[in-house]
Amino acid sequence: MKKTISSFVLAAAVLMGGTIGAQAAGEAIEYPDVHWSWEGPFGTFDRAALRRGMQVYKEVCSSCHSLELLYYRNLQQIGYTEAEVKAIAGDYEVEDGPDEAGDMFMRPAEPSDHFASPFANDNAARASNGGALPPDLSLITKARAGGADYVHALLTGYAEAPADFTLMPGMNYNKYFAGHQIAMAQPLGDDYVEFADGTPATLDQAATDVTTFLAWAAEPEMEERKRLGIKVIIFLIVFTGLAYALKRKIWSDLH
Questions:
Q1: What are the domain boundaries of the chain?
Q2: I want to staple 49 with a disulfide (CB 3.0 to 4.6 A). Which of 93, 148, 212, 213 is the partner?
Q3: What value does the mean pLDDT of the chain take?
Q4: How many other C-beta atoms are found inside a 10 Å radius of the C-beta of residue 32?
């Protein structure tokens, strides 16, 4: 227990110190600029990328990171059939109850359930990760400065530490993480997954696809919001034209 607490304190101190040190030194980390299909007023999510990203999350990320704000039924928005969603949800168990005896029990997840967490509670998550708490990924692309570019850069930024860099025990070097020391080991690499659609699973492809999926998870309503915004703009343009025509008609009569 003491070892776990010490590891957590050490990791927290390193991360906080690295962040503060980078800020104090005025270090500005620039992330590679990635063209995302959903950017701009007419941008939409690439459905194929979303499905591949979901596969990466399920096979790699979900062992440590939760996605608690997303429902399994939301997957139908990105092209999964109702049967596919039921099958995906059925692979997990969620707590339910109480039953007639007043006890909680576990049951297979259903489409109406939130994505199941990989751990029973935060303490269990810390115990399984050397004292560090893996963040929930539901809003990760909105919660971090740099958004999707940051997530993609972090996933592709692992490298050997420079010879003059002191890497703390248990930490990993990452070019794009503040302080360049991160407790999470490199989660992705070439051929870590085998995409169902046959797309080559390079590190960059996997990172791009899972980042796309996480961006959608943070804003599953984004496309509908954009469509509504375009309709409102069109309405305002038409209304402005009619108002201008009416104004011209009224003033022409007065003159």
A1: 1-66+132-220, 227-255
A2: 212
A3: 87
A4: 11
Q: Dihedral sign, CA of 198, 224, 143, 147?
A: positive
Q: Is the pTM of this model over 0.90?
A: no
172 beta partners = 182
- Residue 53 to residues 15, 75, 81, 106, 229, Cα–Cα distance (Å): 28, 12, 17, 28, 27
Q: How confident is the model at residue 103 (pLDDT cuts 50, 70, 90)?
A: confident
Specify whether the CB–CB gap between 114 and 154 falls below 8 A. Answer: no
pLDDT of 245 strictly over 70: yes
pLDDT tens digit string along 161-201?
999 999 998 899 999 999 999 989 999 999 999 999 999 99
Query: What's the pLDDT at 13?
Result: 41
User: Using the 8-state DSSP alphabet, how is residue 117 labeled?
Assistant: P
State both tokens at 161. 């530490």
SS3 sequence of 161-216: CCCCCCCCCCCEEECCCHHHEECCCCCCCCCCCCCCCCCCCCHHHHHHHHHHHHHH
Orientation angle between helical segments 203-218 and 147-156, nearest 10 degrees: 150
> How many contiguous H segments (helices) and E segments (strands) does the chain have?
8, 4
Q: Which architecture characterizes domain 1-66+132-220 according to CATH?
A: Orthogonal Bundle (1.10)
**CA separation, residue 225 to residues 74, 148, 180, 228, 242 (Å):** 16, 19, 37, 5, 26
Please determine, for residue 212, whether its predicted confidence score (pLDDT) is greater than 50. Answer: yes
pLDDT at position 255 is 59
